[in-house]
Every structure is written in structure tokens, then in C-alpha cells.
Amino acid sequence: MHRRLIAPGALAVSLLLTVPASAADYKPGAPGIGDPYYPSYGNGGYDVSHYTLRLKYQPVTDTLEGTATLLARTTQDLSRFNLDFLLDVSEVRVGGAKASFATSGEHELEITPKTPLAKGTPVTIVVRYRGVPSSKQAYGFTNWHRTPDGGVAANEPEAAWWWFPSNDHPLDKATYDVSVAVPDGTQAISNGTLRSTSSRAGWTRYTWRSDKPQATYLATLAVGRFDITTGRTESGIPVINAYSKDLGDNAGAARASVERTGEVAEWLTGYFGPYPYNALGGYVPNVSTGYALETQTRPFYSPRQFAGGSNVSVVVHELAHQWYGDLVSVAGWKDIWINEGFARYAQWLWSEHEGEGTAQELADHVYASHAADDPFWKVRPGDPGPEDLFDIAVYDRGALALQVLRNEVGDRAFFTILKGWPAKYAYGNATVGDFQEYAEQVSGRSLAGLFDTWLFKPSKPGTPAARGAGV
Ligand code: ARG
Ligand code: ZN
């Protein structure tokens, strides 16, 4: 009835103000954000600042349903725009009004709002959906890991498509409220702090908040039957860890490693500066996949990471990413070295700390153990290509390059760079070129040759200069 409050004349005037003078100027947002490795990932025309996901997951049928509310701002005059998503959408609203929608490509949801959106407008997007995530594939794969008692969304560079609609690229970071109802006796684990839990009619709802900018691939959801441990770091940051009740033989080694999270994070602050978030932890679900992932504040660890026994090194790696990868994220996926080279180097520093071999010894080993004709040297860590994004060379040759840099600029400049970089690009994005520029600025040296040789040449470099050469 409030419609009567607006005089017909006033309505006409407001329509004149909101409808574009020339609707032809309003264009569809691009179906990709412009990443050369993955042209369809992310989208153009808007920027998301916040996701609120209110979901319900039934492990028996692998059914995820609920509502995503995105707070965004347009960055161009938009006639329509895309989100990246795979589940079945039943309704979309933009600014409260029902919008029409269609799917296209491998993972695009095309949304046409009732009225076009002017550049710079705040816009609320509500997507109601439901689906069986494990039944959805894009490019022939699924990154939803179903387990006997639930499921897990965690992978890189793509994970969000299977559980929430998003602008799926690290360039568009946002804050998250993730609330998931699961059958009593089951837990839902996500990023950040646990704001509340409540039970009703056989369902328990877990509500998590990640309140610092977070890339979409760093948002995670795990549902299953977990043992949960809580604690605090020495400086008071709350730690929540979760271990599947179904880890079998690996349970002891998993706990003995992940329970070191607080200690390792505090140790890393000595190299990288203050821990950038207000929550910490790790979770180990009963998945059969093998990798680990630096999901923000609470990394994901496959049980297989602990099959060989305790593995604090992987905890060091994933926590190092909280600075190198999560706080400072890649501007494009070609910049993966600014994540993996540094997370590997942190493992070398930990090895040195534990008396298990110095960073120099580990660098020498990487150099010596790959002959000149080893395909290892074909991979260019500074621009590896999408096929080799996580090739071992990105990690090991990437960390070797850092040891070479350390020897070139000396320890003082090197450790100033290591600590200064996360502060300089905090909560943002950067490129390999930005790192070179920053290292040159701090060290006062030209490093173009060093970067080219160690990160960009598809061949084994000549013997690296001895330690201390550049001090
Ligand atoms: N950033 C992750 C790590 O270094 C890599 C994840 C790789 N994912 C994969 N499917 N191989 O721990
Ligand atoms: Zn890594």
C-alpha cells in the first residue's frame, strides 16, 4: 500500500532519473575478469565487498541449498552481469527486484536486472539455489570432495563454483559470513571466527565470520563429523582446529602437526610481521585427495599430508601463505610464484630453525639434484602457464630464486624485504614485477638479470654466486 504514498508525477520523475538517457550505453559485464591464464574466471563490471551465505547441507544426499547475498558496487554502466556458479538457481534478485537469469559457458550465471545499473551504484544481489555439488562438473572436473559423512570445498584456483555464486578471482576480495545448518552430530567448518551455533529440530547451524578481505578460492566449507580443539596463541589469537573422526592411522600425526599451528604462526611473525587476521586454525577432513590449501585463517590439510608421520612443515607452508597469498594475493594467476616460492622458502627457514638443514643447503640440493636436461628447468616459475601452475618447479626453483636473491642483496636487505612486502600490499594484490620493483627499492640494486635468470628462463642457470657475494 505504500505505493500510494508516491504521487504518479513523482514516480515519473524518479523513472526519468534512473533510466539511462541512452540505454545503448549500458553494456553487459565481461564474462571474465581478464586473467590471461583463465579468461572465463571472475567477471567484469562490478566489485563484491561482502558475501553472506545462509545454507543447509544434507550429507546423506549431498544436497546444498540456501541463499547467497552479495553486496557489490558497479564499475561500469551495466545492462547485465555474470557470476561464476554451478548449482541450480531458482531465483535472483537485484536491488530487491526479481531479475532474469540464464546459464552459459562452463560456469557462468548471467543475470539481467529489471533496470540497468549505473556505474558506481551499490547493489545487493540475492541468489537462491540448491544442488548436489558432487554432480556438477566444469571442464570435466569437480572440486567438491564428498566424504562418507559430508563434503569439502577447497581447491585452487577454483573452489567457489560448487558452493556459492561469486566473482571468482583473487582480484575481487570480500568479507564473508558463512552460516550452514547440518544434521545434529555433524559440524560445518569455515573461515574465521565461530560467531554462533544453534540447534533446532535435528539441525545445528554453525555461523562463521571472516572479516578481512578474502579471495574466493580461500573461502572454504567442510561438513562432517569432526573433533574440535580450541586454544589461543601466545599473543591471544583464538585457534580452532577440526579433525575428522575418521582419520584412521593418520589421526595422531595429523593432530601432532596441526596442533602446532599457534606456535608456528607466532614464529612466522618474526619473518613476515604481525599475523593479519583475528582467527587461526586448521582442519583435516576425511578426503582422499592429497594436497593442502591455505584457506584463509584455517588451512585445509588432506590426511595424506600426514601419512608419512608428523609434518609440521606443511603447517609452516600453509600458514606462510596467510601472508604470502592471502594477505597479499596474486593479481593474476601467472603471479603464483609470489605465493608458492615464499611458502616453500618459509619451510626452508623452518628446517633451519629445527636443525634439519639450512636454507642454503636446501637450495644447493634443489640446484644439484636437477641436471641441466631435467624438464624441471623448462618451467618458468615467474610465468609457468596454467598447466604448470603447481609444478614442483614453481615451489623449489621458486624458493631457490629467493636464496639467490638473499645472497645477492645480503641478509639485512633480504629479511627487510620479506617483512616489508606483506605490509606494503596488505589486503590487496600484487605481481611478480611488483616484487622485483620492491626488492630493488629496498636493496638499492638492479635485479632484472637475477629475476630473468632464476624465474623466467626455461633453462638451468649457471652455478649461483656463493653466499655473501652481495653483502
Ligand atoms: N596452494 C596449495 C599449496 O601449495 C596448492 C594447491 C594445489 N592444488 C592442487 N589441486 N594441486 O599448498
Ligand atoms: Zn602453497
From TrEMBL:
Its EC number is 3.4.11.2. Its cofactor is Zn(2+). Residues 1-23 form the signal peptide. It catalyses: Release of an N-terminal amino acid, Xaa-|-Yaa- from a peptide, amide or arylamide. Xaa is preferably Ala, but may be most amino acids including Pro (slow action). When a terminal hydrophobic residue is followed by a prolyl residue, the two may be released as an intact Xaa-Pro dipeptide. The keyword GTP-binding does not apply. Residues 310-454 form the Peptidase M1 membrane alanine aminopeptidase domain. InterPro entries: Aminopeptidase_N-like_N, Aminopeptidase_N-like_N_sf, Peptidase_M1, Peptidase_M1_aminopeptidases, Peptidase_M1_dom, Peptidase_M4/M1_CTD_sf. It comes from the Bacteria. Gene3D superfamilies: Neutral Protease Domain 2, tricorn interacting facor f3 domain. Keywords: Aminopeptidase, Hydrolase, Metal-binding, Metalloprotease, Protease, Signal, Zinc. Residues 49-218 form the Aminopeptidase N-like N-terminal domain. Belongs to the peptidase M1 family. This is Aminopeptidase N. It comes from Streptomyces bluensis. The lineage of its organism: Bacteria, Bacillati, Actinomycetota, Actinomycetes, Kitasatosporales.
